[in-house]
Specification:
The protein is mainly beta and 298 residues long. The chain is built from 4 helices and 12 strands; from the N terminus they run H-E-E-E-E-H-E-E-E-E-E-E-E-H-H-E. Strand 8 and strand 9 form a beta hairpin. The radius of gyration is 30 Å and the shape is rod-shaped.
């Protein structure tokens, strides 16, 4: 784990100085079932843990520049054509139109045009140097092209939640993702993945016991810019935790991964427990479990 974190930081930190950065604040109701072990047995209960998250966000990191072919000057050929009157230009106007002349020269075209009948003549052909913008290398379209670098993002998250007088949970994430712009400067979608640590702090009679687990996070969502530098986002999040790397208590918290607008996964978890184990808590699990928040960028 330590080597993975060091490798990620070594590749990300050098580009953060040039990246767009900001702060995120978000909220998510997380369905969970809790196995609380006492001296006389174990109680299994369902809860919806209201969690808050504070995040540091960097945009266009790691590979903030695309690999391109480089721009260049090229000679193109044009004629002037008449554009009919419109609401914007009520008397009409002459506009420039690019034409292809093959192997001929503008002089050849203009000389032959002199002999055409007046009704079939065209405007004089002329040449002009045009700057052709650079293109991303590779044949794959759009975001699937590995040479297209802009849009990589990094998030460092601190998640906090609590079940009163029972357990507090704390999550630390380091996520790498990709943003895809749908409408420039307004709307985009993104996905993120990375390692995470989850700490469970169990409250006992006068002391606390902590369990810590290693896992992974996968999330995806959409963002809308509401003001310059302020974005609203919503995302679905999946968390999976495996081995305990620190264990002081036999109790456990299992976060339920729920697809939005679908209750099947919740019912599957519910069947593992007694049917009468609190229907109110079960109904709470049917919440969509989406994360909503604001991002402030600088």
């Amino acid at each position: 784990m330590k080597r993975l974190v060091v490798a990620l930081l070594a590749s990300i930190i050098p580009t953060m100085a040039m990246a767009e950065w900001g702060v995120e604040m978000s909220h998510r109701p997380v369905p969970a079932y809790i196995s609380n072990t006492y001296a006389d047995g174990t109680a299994n209960t369902f809860h919806t843990i209201q969690t808050g998250m504070i995040s540091l966000h960097w945009g266009d990191t790691l590979k903030g520049r695309s690999k391109t072919t480089g721009g260049y000057w090229d000679v193109r050929y044009f004629i002037n054509v008449w554009e009919e009157p419109s609401a914007k230009y009520p008397v009409g106007r002459m506009v420039e139109q690019e034409v292809a002349i093959g192997e001929a020269t503008p002089e050849d075209i203009n000389e032959k045009n002199k002999w055409n009948k007046p009704g079939s003549r065209v405007s004089k052909v002329y040449s002009r140097r045009v700057w052709v913008k650079s293109k991303v290398k590779g044949l794959l379209p759009g975001w699937t092209n590995p040479n297209k670098g802009a849009g990589y993002i990094v998030n460092m998250n601190l998640m906090m939640g609590s079940v009163d007088r029972m357990v507090d949970i704390y999550g630390i994430d380091l996520l790498l993702g990709k943003r895809i712009t749908i409408i420039p400067h307004f709307f985009g979608i993104y996905g993120k993945v990375g390692p995470t640590l989850l700490a469970e702090v169990w409250h006992r009679w006068g002391w606390a016991e902590q369990n810590t687990a290693l896992g992974a996070v996968l999330s995806g969502g959409a963002q809308v810019q509401i003001l310059k530098g302020i974005k609203f986002f919503g995302e679905v999040e999946f968390r999976g935790y495996g081995p305990l790397i620190h264990n002081e208590n036999n109790s456990s918290v299992t976060l339920v991964n729920k697809l939005p607008f679908m209750a099947k996964e919740v019912r599957d978890h519910y069947r593992d427990y007694e049917r009468n184990a609190g229907m109110d808590s079960y109904r709470d699990l049917v919440q969509e479990s989406l994360r909503f928040g604001l991002r402030f960028t600088f």
